Amino acid sequence: MDRLTHFMQHHHGHCDEAFATAEADAHRGDWSACAASLARFRADLLGHLAVEEERIFPAFEASTGNTAGPTRVMRSEHEEMRELLGWLDEALAGRNAVAFADAAETLLILLQQHNMKEENILYPMCDRILGGDEVAFKQLMGEVEQALMEVAHG
């Protein structure tokens, strides 16, 4: 069973596409379009992080009794992502393509490394551990899917 892994990996791809659009808009100097695409990316990314921090991680931690392991690392990286979103905002406000590209490159590297850890380690662990209780897992997946759907249509 890799239901969570597959679903969240798909959402990573969705976030990546939104981020690439914002980068392309900034590269072209289309700051109005960049503002809109960056807002979309922000909503997608922050919604994704919230789903992990408010639903997936607590379920994993409750099931394993471990709050000092992979979820702590992921939360720390989430904070770095939020900080980098602020850097993108500053670059956008200043119409600074170089600063935007620098912040975007840093965020991209962090996202790629972070997503690989989640997709190859944490999510499969969640599928394996949480999937043992089919009723609870089905409820969790319903909550995850609903929350991300609300972000997508927000």
Automatic annotation (TrEMBL):
Boundaries of every Hemerythrin-like domain copy: 5-126
Gene Ontology CC terms, in alphabetical order: plasma membrane
Protein name (record): Hemerythrin HHE cation binding domain-containing protein
Lineage, opening ranks: Bacteria, Pseudomonadati, Pseudomonadota, Betaproteobacteria, Rhodocyclales
